[in-house]
Write a structure and sequence with these properties.
Helix content: 25-40%
Shape: globular
Oligomer: single chain
Number of strands: 7
Number of helices: 5
Structural class: alpha+beta
Order of helices and strands: EHHHEEEHEHEE
Length: 176
């Protein structure tokens, strides 16, 4: 396990595109349940073409959005962002952390920065969603005070979900 003290957070830059595409691809391939590998490959393409290619626009400061990368020795090992939903709500998005860096306190630091920034931008509620197959993420959000507010079976693929009948959990937390 990598020591948490060696990582730093900074805002995403266009030059991070290739490294971030590699990270998102690797993590989503790890998540793919047996028999769903092809669908996850399609999802990876959708997220990279549909969101990563427009990340600076989607997560612009003008929209009260922020996106960070997690770095260790000039290698991107994680990512996360907050995206405005309305005047009071923001959504935690693309919280990915390389497997070698998990269980070291880094995810907590990522969430703390997201919440602190969201409060500073005037948000009072944070939303997040995750798939049932992401057991560690589910436990992490619940441990950090997020309350389950709905469950859905995601049939259609979008830039936010694989689809294919996977169950998704939607959480919210008061932060203001």
């Amino acid at each position: 396990m990598a020591p948490a003290a060696t990582v730093s957070f900074r805002r995403y830059q266009l030059t991070d595109y290739g490294a971030l595409a590699s990270l998102w691809t690797r993590i989503n391939r790890e998540l793919a349940p047996p028999g769903m590998e092809k669908m996850f490959e399609q999802y990876i393409a959708v997220t990279i073409d549909g969101e990563l290619s427009q990340l600076l626009e989607v997560f612009s400061k003008a929209k009260r959005n922020c996106f960070w990368v997690v770095e260790d020795a000039d290698e991107i090992v994680g990512s996360f962002g907050i995206e405005s939903r309305n005047a009071t709500d923001t959504e935690l998005r693309r919280m990915y952390l390389d497997q070698a860096y998990r269980s070291s306190g880094i995810a907590q630091r990522m969430l703390d920065l997201a919440e602190t920034t969201a409060r500073a931008l005037g948000f009072t509620k944070m939303l997040v969603s995750t798939a049932q197959i992401q057991k560690a993420a589910d436990r992490f959000y619940r441990k950090n005070g997020f309350q389950l507010n709905r469950t859905e079976v995601a049939e259609a693929m979008t830039a936010k979900q694989v689809g294919g009948g996977l169950t998704r959990f939607h959480f919210e937390k008061a932060i203001g």
